[in-house]
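Sequence of fructose-bisphosphate aldolase (Phoenicibacter congonensis).
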Amino acid sequence: MQKLTAADVRVPMDVPADSRETYVSNYLKATRETGRLMLFACDQKVEHMNKDFYGEGIDIADCEPEHLFEIGKNGVIGVLAGQRGLVAQYAADYPELNYLVKMNSKTNLVKTSQEDPYSPQLTDLEAVLQLRENGVNVVGLGYTIYLGSEYEATMMAEAGQLIAQAHECGLLVVLWIYPRGKAVTAEKEPDLIAGAAGVALCLGADFVKVNPPKPEDGSAPAEALAIAAKAAGRTGLVCAGGGTVDAKTFLTQLHDQIHIGGACGNATGRNIHQRSLDEAVRLTKAISAITLADQSVEEALAVFNGEKDFSYSDI
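Predicted 3D structure, token representation.
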């Protein structure tokens, strides 16, 4: 696929003139000059705690947090997303990675049946900028909003302010938006997913991560996703990867999300990091072959199976 130049990047009007060059540089880094995002989601150590990193069906390597960074170093990704502390502890040894700092998180211990979800902001922008000043390649921020929660107004206000501040400093923002709470009866209902995408646009996000919709009328999920992609407008929509499935199923779904659903990439965590280092690296390359180089499912499977390689030079 054709690579973007600096002139191709559409800069939001809330980015001041003296930060536009930084914003463009971060956008090109994060998308590997393609306009599509391959986000390696490494925030689940708070979100799902250790059950996503140790147990049946999970490679023992995943119990060690450095596994995430080794995958990022040896694989092909756009950005590695994780909480500020995780990035701060390991970034000195992995300076080549692009980082997206997840600004809020919560565990899954308190269930929705007990209380509507609220994910508080864990750090401020100044702490992230200090990481950048110290040489960490921070290209953006991430924030989760639970639409339908009784706390949605607080999260939306925090996210809106954070996006304005981040853009002022030339940083990208990816919103994770999930309809969730006692008021929500079907979290993956297509209209709700499309609504979440529209909210992200109105808050000014550069990308929004949503769950793939689950239509009840028999239509294909990718077709329903196309409505959400349109609702997102100039905010790029990417889908959460979900739990680990076989590579062919995952890569086929990803290809359909992009080429039928209009997604601008992917945001994958467990499907990658729960595997051995070698297998996880091959999967990042296969995912990137589809996301960043428009290769077919068959070509991506050949990469995953080790029949051919894929590197940054192939983008």
